[in-house]
Amino acid sequence: MIYFLAHWDWILERSRADIVTNIKDEFQITSICPLEENNEKIQKTYSDSINWNISREKTLDLLGLINLTKILKNINSNDILHIFTLKSLFLYILATLFAQKQYKVVASITGLGFLFAGTKLANFLKIIIKPVIKLRINKVVDVLIFQNKSNMEQFLTYSNFQNKTTLLEGSGLNTKKIKIKHELNNPVKIIFVGRLLVEKGIREYLKLVEIFSGKEKVKFFIAGKPDFGNKSSISEKKFLEIKNNPNINYLGELDVYSELYKYDILIQPSYHEGFSRIFLEGIYSGLLCIVNDLPGTISIAEKTKSGILISNNNVTDFATEIENYNSNYLNQNFEYSRNIINKLYSVDAISEKLKEIYYELS
């Protein structure tokens, strides 16, 4: 049995469900997460589902930790626990203070996120939890998976992790489901897709909207929701302003595979990305992708030869590349890029690498 653990059911549904479906003939996979908005999809996908009763809105939910401790005690010695996200890993490490670990543990650090954001609160939390991580991580984690070398080096220095590490770029795209763009829009449709977080660059995107305000040649769209359980989330007041902004078409959540192709430009002004899934999805769909130059986007741009990298999230440079849309679009070789994505980042490609890790631990 393999257990997939995350502090949010969206994580196990959004980017892991296709992997589970792909490998379920060889492994039984049980989800451990709060069964909330994605409850129905989770239960359909996984062999079994365990409800982890934890509040994401609290920095540290003690009752949630107690609940996790009870869950961990029921995992058998011949099973594998696979943890997703840094926050889930930290909560697991705390829970193991009260539950002896007998099984094998893999943790995927899909991005360093808020803890390494450089804010005063983040720096304070890093200092507070560092001794616990350094004391426990080598005892309770067997393998760490990273999505880019920069995150790996940074976290290993911070945690002093000395067990096995591996680099696995991406979480697997089901490219067979992605609809491909064949026609351009007039006016040009520009979209931001992601959680409405400061670290995802929502502020920069809103500045772009202001720059092009009143220009009829472009339309701006936002797909995604705030994450009020995240310290980086926009406020409820700001969210209301976005929905009422006449220059923004707010979409709510978007079915990326079936709807992204309807747009022309994807803007990703993120400050932290382990390995940008939406960048890959945008390229495969046939959008011109303009993204901040991060370790989790640079590698994609280099290998697929697609997209435009913006240094230091410079909003003026984003605007310039939007103005040059026609010539920029002609320079994209989407057929080449799709071949690379299928080879390196598809569900099939990532599943094979994960199976190797699981079999080695079994």
Briefly characterize the structure:
By secondary structure, the chain is α/β, with parallel strands linked by helices. It has 16 helices and 13 strands. The chain has helices spanning 9-14, 17-23, 39-45, 62-72, 86-95, 120-140, 149-159, 202-211, 236-244, 256-259, 277-285, 295-304, 315-323, 325-330, 334-344, 347-361; strands spanning 2-5, 29-33, 48-51, 80-84, 104-109, 143-146, 164-167, 188-193, 218-223, 248-252, 265-268, 288-292, 308-310.
Summary tags:
Rossmann fold, 2 domains, alpha/beta, 6-stranded parallel β-sheet, 16 helices, 362 residues
Secondary-structure blueprint of this entry?
Blueprint: E1 2-5, H1 9-14, H2 17-23, E2 29-33, H3 39-45, E3 48-51, H4 62-72, E4 80-84, H5 86-95, E5 104-109, H6 120-140, E6 143-146, H7 149-159, E7 164-167, E8 188-193, H8 202-211, E9 218-223, H9 236-244, E10 248-252, H10 256-259, E11 265-268, H11 277-285, E12 288-292, H12 295-304, E13 308-310, H13 315-323, H14 325-330, H15 334-344, H16 347-361
Parallel strand pairs: 1-2, 1-4, 2-3, 4-5, 5-6, 6-7, 8-9, 8-11, 9-10, 11-12, 12-13
Helix pairs in contact: 2-16, 4-5, 8-13
Strand order of the largest sheet: 3-2-1-4-5-6-7
Determine the structural class based on helices, strands and strand pairing. Answer: alpha/beta
- Considering DSSP H and I runs of 4 or more, what fraction of the residues is helical? 40-55%
What's the overall geometry? globular
* Unreliable residue stretches: none
Please count the beta strands (DSSP E, at least 2 residues each). 13
Rg on CA atoms, Å: 20 Å
Largest sheet: 7 strands, parallel
Topology as a string of helices (H) and strands (E): EHHEHEHEHEHEHEEHEHEHEHEHEHHHH
The number of helical runs is 16
